[in-house]
């Protein structure tokens, strides 16, 4: 009796498992342009809610042939986490678990493209390329194929507290050049009796990311690698220019040592201890949501340029890549929605107003016709009547070229950032930092 | 008769294996297999996608020259030593306090002392970053009131490890306190009465009765806190992200960096095995010491 109970229990458990792993019903045949009911999933990071709203608006529109499709934006901590999740699903063989599309950066895009994970969008996007601003597809292209569909470019900008500049009678236009920016910093320090810093420096990895990789390095025409992929960081004159400029700011005590995206940073800005932010355009949404009480005080302008080089910072792409998997019924729908996002002026403007009302980011358009629309020159109360949108468009005009990206960049970022952090902490000189970076990159990556 | 009895024995053994098989199946799939696989992976170079490249002991040679790895190991060794000494000492004292007859509001005290353990580490870490902020942190405000200069806790290489250790001690002490408390409660109170009658003072009773009686539990706590401290990750990750430089980087955090930021899965596996090797040596040293002391 006991034996029968045990055997019956085991058989029932096995039967239960077989139902779990059994195949589903066959799909009904669909007409061209129709999509099966289900979920369009995107793995992303940052604040994906704002993009989800546009996707849902598209699906809800009467004229679009999409019914019974819901949108799910799964939010991860960062690009590395998204890539890690993709890798885990691929290794486990759970291809059905992969999403329709992912957000990613060029480094991971290259690795995923090499592994055959990403869909080649070259043919699909060819008819639309000329509508976009110059360079829009540069970072999403690898080995001559387009894998990344951009939805915005974030140019380097300067956000400054205009009240402080008026208080100390300093003309912000002097910050058009890097040398002028440094002079302004010294003057602010002097006139405020040491209270006001020109800007911030993060004690961790954000300094390399925001001050250098996307700012001073491309602006100074600096290089980490040469064309053959050898390390030239410590020999390149552009690197020297970028590093020496930063050193000058540190030596003159112009940068407040405080964590990026942290309450003390916003508190320092509120207390007039921070005058400017030299950072990408996404900083607009952080200012509006964390320093809403300072509405009217802030202004913005394109980033300052080095006199020797003359370009105003690299544009950082925000892009999606479509996953190339056997069963991806919403791949075309996803691309259609993204193209609509980039080209449908009326819907994009309506969505942008929705975002502003919710203090969410409004991505700046990267299609020429949309940029010319008057909506993208409207003034902003937060910026004291100045048009933030117009300033972003202006910041597109004089971009630096991005640093060349290789598959060693992820490790290089860790090595370079560690040495820079030691410099910022006062543990070593700038000369030693540059030398160490060069030497460690060569030994860790086995390069010349 | 003989055949029936043999058959019964076989049945009994079969049932026994049947009932323990779920654990061993799960153990084999989720622990044994990954253990073996990651050891094999440590001889390869692999970014998680595409082909793996066999490089023999290349990863192990690289680790010998990896300055960041040895820095993380020395940081972790320091975290472990401080944790072991301070946590065990505090757990011992708090355990004694909770067992004391003279303690009022025992339940409230116990609840307050256990609270750090049930607080989410990430939430506690975020609060600690604000407490230890150089300019607006409460800790520095207190120091200024005491006439001490502000300390750059989280932004200097000299001080960055301190908040990490404080958070780790704050979080871990309650668990070991509860273990010590239950060990103290299991000691026969008549031993203390007899010792009191014989004229032993508090210190002598602690050394001659309490410590020997809780020695096995103390040993268990030592092993556990050593292994837990060697696996420290969340505290440095949240507070300082291992920086500035790699001044507060723990070895598990460095493993994570290699695996999921640099996507060097083979090398990350190597780091895991080197750490395991050191932990095995430390554990063997503990057991050897225990054998010596118990005279076996």
- Strand order in the sheet with the most strands of chain A: 2-1-3-12-6
Order of helices and strands of chain A: HEHEHEHHEEEEHHEHHEHEHEEHHHHHH
* Rg measurement of chain B, Å: 25 Å
How many helical elements of chain B? 12
Please give the CATH class of the largest domain in chain B.
Mainly Alpha
In the CATH hierarchy, the architecture of the largest domain in chain A is 3-Layer(aba) Sandwich
Structural class of chain A: alpha/beta
What would the CATH topology of the largest domain in chain A be?
D-Maltodextrin-Binding Protein, domain 2
Shape of chain A: globular
> What are the segments of chain A in which pLDDT stays under 50 over at least 5 consecutive residues?
22-28
According to CATH, what is the class of the largest domain in chain A? Alpha Beta
Helix-and-strand structural type of chain B? mainly alpha
Number of strands of chain B: 2
Folded structure, characterized:
The complex is a heterodimer of chains A (448) and B (296). Chain A is 43% helix and 13% strand. Chain A has 448 residues and is α/β, with parallel strands linked by helices. Chain A folds into 2 domains: 174 residues, D-Maltodextrin-Binding Protein, domain 2 (3-Layer(aba) Sandwich), CATH 3.40.190.10; 220 residues, Periplasmic binding protein-like II (D-Maltodextrin-Binding Protein, domain 2). In chain A, the strands form 4 sheets. Chain A has a 5-stranded mixed β-sheet. Chain A has a 3-stranded antiparallel β-sheet with strand order 10-7-11. A two-stranded antiparallel sheet of chain A has the order 4-5. In chain A, helix 8 packs across helix 9, helix 8 packs across helix 16 and helix 16 packs antiparallel against helix 17. The longest helix of chain A has 20 residues. Chain A starts with a helix and ends with a helix. About 2% of the residues of chain A have low confidence. Chain B is mostly helical and 296 residues long. Chain B has 2 domains: 30 residues; 205 residues, MetI-like fold. Chain B is built from 12 helices and 2 strands, in the order H-E-E-H-H-H-H-H-H-H-H-H-H-H. A two-stranded antiparallel ribbon of chain B has the order 1-2. In chain B, helix 7 packs across helix 9 and helix 9 packs antiparallel against helix 12. Classes of the chains: A alpha/beta (448), B mainly alpha (296). Chains A and B meet through helix 3, helix 4, helix 10, helix 16 and helix 17 of A and helix 11 of B.
